[in-house]
Amino acid sequence: MLAMSRNDILLFLGFTIAVLAMPIWLQPFGAAYPDLLQRFMIFGIFAVGFNILFGLTGYLSFGHAAFFGVGSYTAVWSFKLLSLDAIPAMLFAIAVSGVFALVIGYLSLRRSGIYFSILTLAFAQMSYNLAYSVLTPITNGETGLQLTLADPRHVDRMFGEAMPGQPVPTLLGQSLGGFAGFYFCAGFLIIAFFIAQRITNSPFGMMLKGIKSNQTRMNYTGFNTKPYTLAAFVISGMYAGLAGALLAVTDPLAGAERMQWTASGEVVLMTILGGAGTLVGPVIGAWLIKYFENIFSAINETILARFWDFLPDGLDHAAVVVSSKFVGEGWFLTLGLVFVLIVVFLPGGIMEGVRRIAHLFNRPDKSSPSQGKAAPQPQPAE
Amino acid sequence: MFEVIFLQFLNGLDKGAAYALIALGLTLVFGTLGVVNFAHGALFMLGAFCAVLFRQLLTMETVTIDPTQLSPWGQPLEVRAPLVQAWFGDFGAVLVNYSVPASIIITIPIMLVVGIALERGIIKHFYKRPHAEQILVTFGLAIVAQEVIKSFFGPNPIPQPMPTDLRGAADIGAWLGMQANVITYPIWRLVYFLFAGVIIGAVFAFLQFTTFGMVVRAGMADRETVGLLGINIDRRFTIMFGLAAVVAGVAGVMYTPLLPPNYHIGMDFLVLSFVVVVVGGMGSLPGAVAAGFLLGILQSFASMTQVKALIPGIDQIIIYLVAVVILLVLPRGLFGRRGVMEA
User: Which of A114, A229, A264, A331 to mutate to test the interface with B (most CBs of B within 10 A)?
Assistant: First the structure.
């Protein structure tokens, strides 16, 4: 298949099977309900796309949520104006966020390092603030953009009367609720993963990695690195737009808060937690964060009391009080702590942990040098 | 027309002063330790909550039920007596009234300890790590600090009253010999601006005129040589981190009457202050102060109705817009040096 190595094909097949079988193997974890699974897929795509920029080129963008938000708004407008079908909405969202990323990327990539991060942050915050204030006719401000019965939907009207009831996005007339929505998103995640895998292994991907390890040397070798970083930026912006559109498909309500810089920070967290620069890492990071967000924030004191019941009286009460700070509303505290620990002790994220453990089990004489890559990766020149 | 412009200029000063103070601390940390500290906004927030804590301690009350007195509903009357007032009499009442400025007394040691603990505990391990990882670990620390505060003080803003003598507005126009009651300005904002001026002046004087400051400046220019001369530069840099934390903390304390603090007040300021630092030029102390005031004043002008009518939405984006333009035209900000943080 397109000259993929055996390992790549195995990785891709394994990933596909793991994704498609999620409703089964997540059953024991209490996460196999469609709403959460859809989010797994959507933020997986977002993180995979972010990793194409950050993981490969080392450019840390703090404004990717803007593309996510633009994708959402475009998709909802496509539902409103043209048709409730999901496919044109996705195409429009990818195209519009791609153009948006092209403009922002063209300007931001004139600088590197923290200046690049601040430029992307500034653009994203501008989009967010405008979406809240002046662009209210387009974004519907704080209320959020949503579908109504009065929407024109020109294409749908051409093919007959609109269906009664609250309009929901469809795929060729099929409703996309529940597991149908999950498999729809899963298909996109698998395609997104496949493309990311091809990019990583292509000469283009090698070029991006070269930019990360030493851009000056790349320039001296005679490459103009700008078009490559810009291409990576636009591609990851399109991924973000796709993810935003999928979120609009599963829940057709687009709000400005998904463009805020905390949302950009979240995708950075996902990528780092899983392991920047690896293929599977960002997806796993996204899944873990979304999973624990759902599970931890649902735990309340009653559940904790039951959990700590085995402790002697008084002690169990103290345990409940202490641990209740870390769940429910306080789940972000857990996230922050875990995140600090990961950055301090395991800078490569979960994937590096996996690699280290795998390294322990390999017999020293059998392990090839490439497997012993637990040491810190060479970093871009300062 | 002149009055309007002058008033807007004044309005920008207090916000500009807050930006300048936070940006000063950020630049201090970056210039000495070379660390991009995303937790600096959290230090601002911690300072603000020192004020909240101080006031809560001061206003602790003893509630006794006095059966001899009856409330209008016939219930025994609850008598509340603030402990401080019970112990110190009138001085206690003054202390409660001036709780915000007085809380600086506890803020300075707390922030110094927090700053030094942060530097020794975590940040010192990140000197050699890439900037992206420094950003990430301090970002994580900021989340932790926020959530700890949230779990103790709750998610809602806690208003802090300003001292009764400093409420109301000052007639600045009359002071300057202009028509009375045209240019009036809240006294507390004036206090904040003067306070910021004092702090900024003190930090610069400290760096310029003391031996300690001279060593620190030498270390900023060439850390290794200073170390080779037998000076323990690491310890001085640690103290500078503590000092930066104190600056952020007292900036937060004094800002509480203007904006009731909640747990994410630091994050809101952090993003803007980073823009300020970068606009001023990474690593330049005068740049940070100048850019802080510049952006504060520009923001104030952009919120004028006349300007908003001309360019709708400009007040929402002006700071970011200025940042983008300056970064694209002057790649290193207003006062930045070459080759800082560009990898």
Answer: A114
